[in-house]
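Hi V.,

Quick status before I head out on leave. The structure for the redesign project is tokenized and pasted below; the design run finished overnight.
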């Protein structure tokens, strides 16, 4: 694998072309949750602003991730086998390994501290869940912020501060919009 460049410290978030209006409460909640969990799934109907909210929250949290905040757009991917390649592409790193791509990706990311936004996961639920689960297990310094129209995909990743608690009362987290998915993953519906 090639050594990370200066670009990798900054990420690949697009420049905002318009001002961010509203959603201050949701933005604050997402930022708070990103300090206590490694997987936070944002879900919402098409056009609800889920991607924009994820991008803004990630941009404001970028200083917490020494190796950057990276947007992985999964919308154009129509082959489940290309999910890992989409992450490599977003990171600007060629997959030159002869090994299985997901293993190579895990090895590349395992010593890093970064946030990956997996945008538009709804049509790649199985492969996105495999990639996310593998990276969460192999890369303890990384966070994942998937966005999706579908709130079904979650992975068992209790928040750090909840010591394995599986319900919101045990964690004492605010907001009726906060939902715990299957087995403790956190998600926010937009």
């Amino acid at each position: 694998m090639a050594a990370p460049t200066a670009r990798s410290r900054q990420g690949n978030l697009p420049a905002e072309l318009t001002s961010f209006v509203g959603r201050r409460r949701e933005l604050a909640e997402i930022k708070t949750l990103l300090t206590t969990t490694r997987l936070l799934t944002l879900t919402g109907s098409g056009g609800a602003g889920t991607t924009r909210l994820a991008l803004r929250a990630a941009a404001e949290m970028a200083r917490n991730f020494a190796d950057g905040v990276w947007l992985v757009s999964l919308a154009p991917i129509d082959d489940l086998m290309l999910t890992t390649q989409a992450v490599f592409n977003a990171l600007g790193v060629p997959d030159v390994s002869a090994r299985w791509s997901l293993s190579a990706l895990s090895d590349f990311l395992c010593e890093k501290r970064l946030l990956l936004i997996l945008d538009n996961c709804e049509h790649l639920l199985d492969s996105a869940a495999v990639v996310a689960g593998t990276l969460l297990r192999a890369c303890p310094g990384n966070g994942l912020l998937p966005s999706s129209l579908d709130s079904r995909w979650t992975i068992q990743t209790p928040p750090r501060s909840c010591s394995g608690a599986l319900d919101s009362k045990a964690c004492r987290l605010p907001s009726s919009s906060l939902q715990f998915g299957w087995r403790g993953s956190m998600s926010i519906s937009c």
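Above is the designed sequence. The helical segments are 24-34, 50-61, 83-91, 101-109, 125-138, 168-171.

G. will cover questions while I'm gone.

Best,
W.
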